[in-house]
């Protein structure tokens, strides 16, 4: 059969995966084979193919859970085959025996047997209707294959979120067409494909295909998925009464998000690039001399003697071990950038080529360099090969980690050398276009777990795929421009990314590209005198950086980076420095709050940088808001992204009262206000009925941080669980860390704690109840 011939490569690659458990049932719809495979009461996989072997084969890379049909039942009736659990009911609709086609149908009718599937919640409400599927034959990378896809109906008022990172500046995906592929050169900024989309109607879809995929959510009253390479349709449906239940389902299916080292919540200082050991240490000492907190120094690219040597150039970094010892004595950690690219002249190129461990063509010849841009040198490590991954880690361990570096920045994880038209060991680069970030970060995650089992892992990664969060990766928005427009796009881009189930995202504070913005439309709010970070023509850049820094002070991680001559906090002018220091100290005061949120994410899978639709599902006004968000359960953040303004409109969601963090004035929700936004303030509101622990100032998270206060914002009963541990090792996985739950009673006006705080303090003397104005 033609489809079996086309599926040869897919069958070969699937055979390498663990055998799947028997599906709950296999349904034949006139030659369309449908496999139904539950993974939990609210998670079910649907696979549709023309061949049973493909229909029952396990999912592709990304999902790592085992099927679980406990509590599920299967029956057949006139409507079709009905699969039910306590959480949902899935029906594969009955299909009559096909009649002979009319003359018109002979021309227009699809060749595939029709398959229709509906999913309803426990209350009988329709959540999802799949109305059709497709397989269109074509040839990709000399492989006879298919475009595969499925179409779904749209519910009234339905909105869509996620699918990774898109920097077009809009949160809601409805009515758009998303090119779901890793693309460093996407016009608005790098796009990253994580094919998990959630809706405001109680379900999410995990699309099980790693090739480039087009998704059109809610366009022309339909949602259409189409992948470029495949021989079957495979997807998971996750249902839930809340969005957090959807994220718990995603975590169960693809892996939990581990709690990062505590240093990840402090300031991470980087630059492209520190050219010498002395320059890096001078910046670190500069923070200490100015009494500014700092946790991590980053050594970016070109510290090596040649790309692919996996070494450290001792001409400019004569004593990397001593450098790291100095950082550790300052209470800091280090991150170093390691690339998967190998120049032809580097020591490992021939070895890797002979092993077949580099991206190659069909004839086995190594693909060397990019067809676009100026950085054309080097071949790509084939991280789809487990032996290549293991080798890569051993070289990092022996050549770099041995010099005292704590954690690793795996750059170019798209990968930067686009694999389309070439071959991985697992199959064609087109078939696995989006897979690389998962397998490449696995090299360090698995190697570190084996060789440094007591050290908590952290990886900086520029791209993601299904499951990458389980590797301990922190993500950022790539090499964005240093302009107001770029800043404006970061806010919805980050919210879309965290809505994908990836909790740790931020952006290069100030933008990565050399500052070269247009002339300011308004008088700059900060005098640029003394700034070294930009040319004199960019007079409003200190203002831009300050607004960006204020915003990133309320993202999961805070990292300064860029190609600027200087990136440290004091290099944006004498007027900006004290304002920036104020935001930095606020960030450090909030670390007890943030670390507790990180622990909660590890337990639940739910992100803590949250688009408003997640927490206010009954307020239709928030469905499309992408320039405000919740930061944990307490804070509503409204970044300022326009030059020269000192106020902005802020919508306060209905169903809650809100306190202005700066003035403590109380507002009723469901209204838009004009919020003051002087340059030293970011519009920041606290939800009534919140508990916010605030820590004393410390120079880094290496210093024990007692609580300075526990701020209660009355309005309803509230609880908050504090969490702490040593912040560095994996001992918390055995001991569970230290916790205490704080509970506020609105009726009595009292705060109670479940015991002594993780800091050893007594809560009673720390409570401050905000009275409001």
From TrEMBL:
Domain Glycoside hydrolase family 31 TIM barrel span(s) in chain numbering: 257-597
Secretion signal, residue range per the UniProt entry: 1-21
InterPro entries xrefs: Gal_mutarotase_sf_dom (IPR011013), GH (IPR017853), Glyco_hydro_31_C (IPR048395), Glyco_hydro_31_N_dom (IPR025887), Glyco_hydro_31_TIM (IPR000322), Glyco_hydro_b (IPR013780), Glycosyl_Hydrolase_31 (IPR051816)
GO biological process, any: carbohydrate metabolic process
Keyword rRNA-binding: no
Pfam families: Gal_mutarotas_2, Glyco_hydro_31_2nd, Glyco_hydro_31_3rd
Keyword terms: Glycosidase, Hydrolase, Signal
Gene Ontology molecular functions: carbohydrate binding; hydrolase activity, hydrolyzing O-glycosyl compounds
Superkingdom of the source species: Bacteria
Domain Glycosyl hydrolase family 31 C-terminal residue range list: 605-692
Domain Glycoside hydrolase family 31 N-terminal: 34-215
Similarity section: Belongs to the glycosyl hydrolase 31 family.
Protein name in UniProt: Alpha-glucosidase
């Amino acid at each position: 059969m033609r489809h079996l011939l086309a599926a040869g490569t897919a069958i070969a690659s699937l055979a390498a995966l663990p055998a799947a458990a028997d599906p709950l049932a296999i349904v034949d719809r006139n030659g369309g084979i449908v496999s139904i495979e539950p993974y939990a009461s609210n998670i079910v996989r649907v696979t549709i193919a023309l061949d049973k072997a493909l229909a029952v084969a396990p999912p592709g890379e990304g999902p790592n859970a085992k099927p679980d049909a406990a509590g599920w039942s299967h029956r057949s009736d006139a409507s079709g085959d009905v699969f039910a659990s306590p959480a949902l009911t899935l029906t594969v609709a009955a299909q009559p025996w096909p009649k002979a086609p009319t003359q018109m149908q002979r021309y227009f009718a699809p060749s595939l047997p029709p398959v229709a599937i509906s999913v309803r919640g426990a209350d009988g409400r329709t959540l999802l209707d799949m109305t059709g599927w497709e397989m269109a034959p074509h040839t990709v990378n000399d492989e006879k294959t298919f475009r595969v896809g499925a179409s779904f109906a749209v519910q009234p008022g339905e909105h869509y979120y996620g699918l990774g990172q898109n920097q077009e500046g809009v949160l809601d995906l409805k009515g758009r067409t998303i090119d779901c592929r890793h693309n460093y050169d996407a016009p608005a900024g790098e796009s990253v494909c994580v094919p998990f989309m959630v809706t405001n109607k109680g379900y999410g879809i995990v699309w099980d295909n790693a090739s480039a995929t087009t998704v059109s959510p809610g366009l022309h009253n339909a949602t259409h998925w189409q992948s470029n390479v495949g021989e079957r349709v495979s997807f998971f449906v996750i249902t839930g009464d809340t969005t957090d239940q959807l994220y718990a389902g995603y975590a169960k299916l693809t892996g939990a998000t581990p709690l990062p080292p505590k240093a990840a919540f402090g300031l991470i200082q980087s630059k492209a690039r520190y050219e010498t050991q002395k320059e890096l240490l001078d910046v670190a000492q500069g923070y200490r001399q100015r009494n500014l907190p700092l946790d991590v120094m980053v050594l970016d690219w070109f510290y090596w003697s040649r790309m692919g040597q996996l070494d450290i150039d001792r001409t400019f970094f004569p004593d990397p071990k001593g450098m790291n010892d100095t950082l550790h004595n300052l209470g800091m950690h280090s991150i170093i950038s390691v690339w998967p690219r190998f120049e032809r002249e580097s020591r490992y190129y021939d070895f890797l080529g002979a092993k077949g461990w580099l991206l190659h063509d069909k004839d086995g010849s190594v693909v060397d360099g990019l067809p676009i841009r100026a950085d054309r040198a080097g071949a790509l490590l084939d991280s789809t090969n487990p032996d290549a991954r293991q080798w890569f880690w051993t070289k990092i361990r022996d050549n770099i980690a041995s010099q005292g570096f704590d954690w690793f920045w795996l750059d170019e994880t798209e990968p930067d050398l686009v694999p389309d038209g070439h071959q991985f060991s697992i199959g064609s680069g087109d078939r696995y276009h989006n897979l690389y970030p998962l397998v490449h970060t696995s090299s360090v995650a698995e190697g570190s777990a084996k060789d440094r089992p007591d050290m908590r892992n952290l990886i900086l990664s520029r791209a993601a795929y299904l499951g990458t969060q389980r590797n301990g990766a922190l993500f950022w928005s790539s090499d964005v421009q240093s302009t107001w427009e770029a800043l404006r796009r970061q806010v919805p881009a980050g919210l879309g990314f965290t809505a994908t189930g990836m909790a740790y995202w931020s952006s290069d504070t100030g933008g990565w590209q050399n500052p070269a913005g247009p002339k300011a439309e308004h008088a700059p709010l900060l005098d640029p005198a003394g700034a070294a970070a930009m040319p004199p023509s960019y007079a409003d850049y200190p203002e831009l950086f300050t607004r960006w820094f204020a915003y990133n002070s309320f993202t999961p991680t805070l990292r300064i980076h860029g190609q600027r001559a200087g990136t440290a906090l004091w290099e944006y002018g004498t007027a900006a420095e004290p304002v920036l220091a104020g935001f930095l100290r606020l960030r450090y005061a909030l670390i007890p709050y943030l670390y507790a949120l990180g622990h909660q994410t590890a337990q639940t899978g739910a992100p803590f940088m949250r688009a408003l639709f997640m927490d206010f599902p009954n307020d239709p006004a928030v469905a499309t808001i992408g320039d405000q968000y919740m930061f944990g359960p307490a804070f509503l953040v409204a970044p300022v992204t326009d030059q020269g303004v000192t106020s902005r409109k802020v919508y306060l969601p209905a169903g809650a009262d809100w306190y202005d963090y700066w003035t403590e004035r109380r507002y009723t929700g469901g209204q838009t206000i004009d919020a003051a936004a002087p340059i030293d303030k970011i519009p920041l509101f606290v939800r009534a009925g919140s508990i916010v622990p605030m820590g004393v100032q410390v120079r880094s998270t290496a210093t024990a941080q007692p609580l300075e206060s526990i701020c209660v914002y009355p309005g309803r009963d509230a609880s908050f669980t504090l969490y702490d541990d040593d912040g560095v090792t994996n001992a918390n996985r055995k001991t569970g860390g230290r916790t205490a739950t704080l509970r506020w009673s609105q009726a009595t006006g009292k705060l109670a704690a479940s015991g002594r705080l993780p800091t050893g303090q007594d809560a009673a003397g720390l409570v401050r109840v905000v009275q409001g104005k």
